[in-house]
Predict the 3D structure of the following.
Amino acid sequence: MSNESKYLIDLFSGCGGLSHGFEQAGFECVLGVDFDKPALDTFAHNHPHAKAMNLDLSEDYSINEIIKYVGDKPISVLVAGPPCQGFSLTGTRNENDKRNKLFYSVFKVAEVVKPKCIIIENVPGIATLYEGKARAAILEEFKRLGYSCSEKLLYAPDYGVPQIRKRMFFVGLLDESAFTFPTATHAPTDYITCSEAISDLPSLENDAGKEVADYETEPQSEYQKYMRQNSSNLFNHVGTNHSDLVISVIRQVPEGGNHKDLPEGVGDSRKFNEAWTRYHSQKPSKTIDTGHRNHFHYRWDRVPSARENARLQSFPDDFQFVGPKTQQYKQIGNAVPPLLGYALGKQLMNLGI
């Protein structure tokens, strides 16, 4: 394999979880593009060597801006996570939602830039909703541009992410050879648990915490050592002020339980599937979402901090989230776990991409 730089473009980058994982595997991100300015600010903060472009990828002028910036720079990989609201189980599932067709912009860029590899990531529903029309269109675009396409649903705990999360990946190689997805690094018996992920972080019981703080304990697991290896400070570990009523309800939810475990008449304001969910210390967390009102710490009677959610998403502690706390939660929930990006990136490196 040559020693030349392996350049990466991240479209619909969000805060940059996927590209951060690829960089950990040895790639260099040169460009991140997103329409969400707060998320792009976090991307820019953590990718100072990359250009951050605030663009609407549904517009042709945006495609031209990207192509102009890249110029003749050889791009190894183009990664993209088009907005999934139209495909998501939590979305409206509107077949005509224009966000469902944003993946075409990925191929418009690829048609000119000609990366060696294209990776599109999305929610599992993209493969089946609307009779599989979106999936079929994506496969057709890969074929039209001369790329192979391998697809697989990846389960995050299999790759060391302490969170139950499934994501669909389409991987196309320009030489049309099939891509072999990385094998799992963890078996169900050794999935990283919530406790292994966040037990070293301050309880925030008597302290609201602050955006930059000191660690109070040594790492208590190998995962925590890995998360902390490049950070001497603790960022984004700030608590949320709950009312006495909310705290009283949380206290009645057993570890690993949810609203179904509450006494009759308690917590009636929230009765949907994920309501009043308390994590289990000896299991991966539930899927991190863009809010922060429905999941609670396995031990402390509060929602997880942004840093705790980031740990559960496999963001290392030196990855700092900027902006108001609500924005931090949104950015983290929308992100692809960096360890998934790392697994895919290492596989491509092994193939000489």
The chain has a mean pLDDT of 91. The two ends are 8 Å apart (CA to CA). The first strand starts at residue 7 and ends at 11. DSSP finds eleven helices and eleven strands in the chain.
